[in-house]
Write a structure and sequence with these properties.
Elements: H1 2-15, H2 17-56, E1 61-64, E2 70-71, H3 73-80, E3 87-97, E4 104-110, H4 130-133, H5 135-139, E5 143-147, H6 148-154, E6 161-166, E7 169-179, E8 193-197, H7 198-205, E9 210-211, E10 213-216, H8 223-233, E11 239-242, H9 243-253, H10 255-286, H11 288-296, H12 301-345, H13 358-385, H14 388-391, H15 394-423, H16 429-462, H17 469-480, H18 482-520, H19 543-550, E12 560-568, E13 571-579, H20 582-585, E14 590-592, H21 595-602, E15 607-611, H22 612-618, E16 625-630, E17 633-643, E18 653-655
Parallel strand pairs: 4-8, 5-7, 13-18, 15-17
Antiparallel strand pairs: 1-10, 1-11, 2-9, 3-4, 3-6, 3-10, 5-8, 6-7, 12-13, 14-17, 15-18, 16-17
Helix pairs in contact: 1-12, 2-10, 2-12, 2-13, 10-13, 10-16, 10-18, 12-13, 15-16, 16-17, 16-18
C-alpha cells in the first residue's frame, strides 16, 4: 500500500511541475530572508568581539584621560608610587592604507616589556628566541608587526614598506614580523591590527610623552584597595573604568541599530512563515481529491497522514537546503552594507570573516521544516479525520473554512486592539513599540480574509444587473474557495503592507534628512580630513591651515568643527565643539529653546546644546545640568537648547 501512495503522490507532483517548483521556491525564500539577516548580524557581532579580544587582551581595568589622553609620567608613578605591577601603556588609533583605498587598520603602540601579562603579541616566527627576534622591532625605525593573514591579503612580505595616512600626514612603515595567534584568542582576532613600539606610535601620532590609556590587571580581594590607591594618583580629567563596562558602553551605542535588525529579522520570520505556510497548505488542499479517492479505496487514515507528512518533509528539506544556500549568499552582500553603516555612524569595524553561527542554521531549519510540517499537518488531519465521501466534497471543506475565517477575524481584532493599547503607553520604550506593531500586523493579517469577504460581498451588491457574468463569477469564486484564498490574501496583505510601510518610512526620513542637510550645509566649500575616524588629535586640521584659509582673499567667513568622544563609566558621549559664523548658525533648527537667546549665551556662558536624540535618551529639559569630564576634571554645563540632528542616534553634545 505504501508504494501505491508514493506513486500516486509522485504522479500528482509530476503532473504539476510548476506547483512543485513554486512550493520549493516558496519555502526557500522564506528561509533565505531569515538566514541572511541573522547571519549578517552575527558576523558583525563576531567581528567586534574578535577585535576587542585582541586589543583589550586580559586587561580588567583601564585608565582613560581626556581628548589629549594621559601624560606618560602617570605610568611611571603607578609603577613606583602605587606599586602596580601589571600595567601596560597603550597609544592607539585607526589609520588608512594609502595604497589600498577603503582599507582601515588599527595601529596599536605598546611597550613590549609590559605586554607579557596582557596580549599575546610576540612575532610568530620567533617565539622561542623572543629577545633575538624582537631586535628588528626595537632597532628599526617605524617598524610594525602585522597578522600573516592580513599580509597575504594585502600582498605584503617581511621587509616591505606599508604607507599609511594619519590625518593630513602620510607615513611609511616597515613590516618586520608576523603576529602570532596563541593563547585564548580565536583565529582572525589580529586581522586589521598593526603593532608598533609606543615610542614610534607617539612620533606618528604627534603625541610625544602622552598615552591613549593605561591597561591594568586587577584581581583578588584587594582590588578595591588598589583602585583607591590609583584614584589618588590620577590627575584631573582621568578616570578608571573596567574593561567590561567600556565594552558594554560601545555595544550600547549600537543597541538601537541591533534592535532594528532584530525587528527586521522577526518581520522576516513572520513574512517567511506566511509564505511557507500558504505554499504547503495550498499544495495539500490541491491533493484533497486524491486523499479522498485513496481513502475510498481502503487506505487507512494513518497511512495517508504519514504519506502527506513524509512528502512535506521531502519538500521542506529541499526548500530549506536551497534557502540556506540563498540566505548565505545574500548575507555576504548584506554584511558589507551593515559594516558600512556601523563605520559611518558608530565605530570603526572591519568584518573580514563571515561567521555562520549554529543558531542561525537551526533557526532556518526550524522555520523551513517546522512551518512546512505544521502547514501540511493541519489540512492533512482535516482530510483524514473525516469520512471519505466528505473528503471528496469541496462544499464541506469550504463550510469549515468559513467558520475558521470568522473565528480568525475575531481573534485578529482582539490582537490588533491589544497592540493599539500598547502603542498608547507613553513610556513603553522601543521593545514595547515593536511588540505593539507586530501585534497590529499579525492581527490585521488574521482579519484580512474576513474583510475580503465583506468587501467582495459589498461590491457584488453594488454591481448593476448589466455587469458581466464573468466579473460576478470571479468575485464569487474568491469567496467560494476560502480554503485556498484566505491564507494567500493574508500573506499578500502582509507583504504589501510591509513594503508600503517601510517605503513610506524611508522616504519620509529621507525627506527630513534632505531638508536638514539643505539648511545645515550652507557653506560653499568644506575642508576636512578623510579617514576612518576623527578621534585622535592627529586627525584634526592644524591651526596653521585654518589661519591660512581665513587669510585667503575672497573668503568671507570660516566656521570650524572639532569632534571628540568622552568616555565615562558605562557611556561614551560624542562632543562637538563649534566656532560658528552668523551664516552657519542659521543652519541650526531648534526643537526647544529660543534661537536668539541661545546664540546670545552660546559663546559667553558655560552652556551646551544637545541633539534631539540625546535629550530623549537622557530625559533632559531646558535648564538642566549636564556633567562632562574634561581635562580639568568634572564640570557642569547648562542645557540651553535642543536641536535637530540626524547624524547620530546616540545624540550629540555641542559647545562653543
Amino acid at each position: 500500500m505504501t508504494s501505491i501512495l508514493w506513486r500516486a503522490g509522485l504522479r500528482f507532483l509530476i503532473r504539476n511541475p510548476w506547483q512543485l517548483g513554486l512550493a520549493v521556491l516558496g519555502i526557500a525564500l522564506g528561509v533565505a530572508v531569515v538566514v541572511a539577516i541573522d547571519a549578517a548580524r552575527t558576523s558583525a557581532d563576531r567581528a567586534f568581539t574578535l577585535s576587542t579580544q585582541a586589543v583589550v587582551g586580559k586587561a580588567t581595568h583601564r585608565i582613560i584621560g581626556g581628548p589629549k589622553g594621559l601624560e606618560e609620567s602617570l605610568f611611571t608613578r603607578l609603577k613606583i608610587s602605587a606599586a602596580i605591577r601589571q600595567a601596560a601603556p597603550v597609544l592607539e588609533d585607526h589609520v588608512s592604507l594609502a595604497d589600498y583605498p577603503g582599507e582601515t587598520m588599527h595601529l596599536l603602540g605598546i611597550d613590549p616589556f609590559s605586554e607579557l601579562s596582557f596580549r599575546a603579541l610576540w612575532p610568530a616566527d620567533e617565539k622561542r628566541a623572543s629577545a633575538a627576534g624582537l631586535v628588528k622591532f626595537f632597532t628599526q625605525t617605524a617598524s610594525v608587526l602585522i597578522n600573516r593573514t592580513s599580509g597575504a591579503r594585502l600582498g605584503i612580505q617581511l621587509g616591505d614598506h606599508l604607507d599609511i595616512n594619519l590625518g593630513t600626514v602620510a607615513h611609511r612603515l616597515r613590516v618586520v614580523g608576523w603576529l602570532t595567534e596563541i593563547g585564548d584568542l580565536d583565529q582572525g582576532s589580529y586581522d586589521d591590527l598593526l603593532v608598533t613600539d609606543i615610542a614610534t606610535a607617539q612620533e606618528l601620532f604627534g603625541m610625544a610623552g602622552r598615552l591613549s590609556h593605561i591597561d591594568l590587571i586587577l584581581a583578588g580581594p584587594r582590588t578595591e584597595a588598589v583602585l583607591t590607591r590609583i584614584q589618588r594618583l590620577l590627575p584631573p580629567g582621568a578616570a578608571v573604568i573596567s574593561s567590561r563596562t567600556r565594552d558594554q558602553a560601545v555595544v550600547r551605542m549600537t543597541r538601537a541599530f541591533q534592535a532594528n535588525l532584530l525587528a527586521l529579522g522577526l518581520l522576516a520570520v513572520m513574512v517567511g512563515g506566511f509564505v511557507v505556510f500558504n505554499t504547503m497548505r495550498f499544495l495539500v488542499v490541491q491533493q484533497r481529491d486524491l486523499v479522498g479517492t485513496l481513502r475510498t479505496l481502503g487506505v487507512r487514515r494513518g497511512e495517508v497522514f504519514g504519506w502527506i507528512l513524509a512528502e512535506a518533509t521531502l519538500l521542506g528539506s529541499a526548500g530549506t537546503v536551497l534557502g540556506l544556500a540563498l540566505g548565505l549568499g545574500m548575507a555576504d552582500a548584506l554584511v558589507k552594507l551593515m559594516t558600512r553603516t556601523i563605520n559611518d555612524v558608530y565605530y570603526v569595524l572591519a568584518v573580514r570573516q563571515f561567521s555562520l553561527a549554529s543558531a542561525t542554521v537551526l533557526k532556518g531549519i526550524a522555520l523551513g521544516m517546522g512551518t512546512t510540517l505544521i502547514a501540511a499537518a493541519l489540512p492533512a488531519y482535516e482530510a483524514t479525520a473525516m469520512l471519505p465521501r466528505l473528503s471528496l466534497a469541496r462544499s464541506h471543506l469550504e463550510i469549515r473554512s468559513r467558520r475558521k475565517v470568522a473565528i480568525a477575524g475575531w481573534v485578529g481584532v482582539s490582537i490588533a486592539a491589544f497592540g493599539a493599547l500598547l502603542l498608547g503607553i507613553p513610556s513603553g520604550g522601543l521593545v514595547m513599540a515593536f511588540a505593539a506593531l507586530f501585534a497590529i500586523v499579525f492581527g490585521s493579517a488574521l482579519l484580512t480574509p474576513v474583510l475580503m469577504v465583506g468587501i467582495i460581498h459589498g461590491v457584488g451588491k453594488l454591481l448593476s444587473p448589466s455587469a458581466g457574468m464573468l466579473l460576478r463569477m470571479a468575485l464569487r469564486s474568491v469567496t467560494a474557495a476560502l480554503s485556498r484564498t484566505a491564507v494567500a490574501v493574508a500573506a499578500l496583505m502582509l507583504a504589501i503592507a510591509t513594503t508600503v510601510g517601510m517605503g513610506l518610512m524611508i522616504s519620509d526620513f529621507r525627506l527630513s534628512v534632505s531638508d536638514w542637510l539643505a539648511n545645515l550645509l550652507g557653506a560653499d566649500l568644506y575642508v576636512f580630513v578623510s579617514g576612518p575616524t576623527v578621534r585622535a588629535p592627529a586627525s584634526a586640521l592644524g591651526p596653521e591651515l585654518v589661519k591660512g584659509i581665513r587669510s585667503v582673499p575672497g573668503v568671507a567667513s570660516v566656521s570650524t568643527t572639532r569632534r571628540i568622544f568622552i568616555e565615562d563609566p558605562g557611556e561614551i558621549t560624542e562632543l562637538v565643539a563649534y566656532e560658528l559664523s552668523a551664516r552657519s548658525r542659521a543652519g541650526f533648527r531648534f526643537q526647544r529653546g529660543d534661537p536668539e537667546r541661545i546664540w546670545r549665551v552660546f559663546d559667553r556662558e558655560d552652556v551646551v546644546l544637545v541633539s534631539e536624540a540625546y535629550a530623549y535618551r537622557h530625559g533632559l529639559s531646558l535648564g538642566d545640568s549636564i556633567r562632562l569630564r574634561t581635562d580639568r576634571g568634572q564640570r557642569n554645563f547648562t542645557l540651553a537648547g535642543v536641536y535637530y540632528h540626524y547624524g547620530s542616534d546616540q545624540g550629540l553634545v555641542a559647545m562653543s
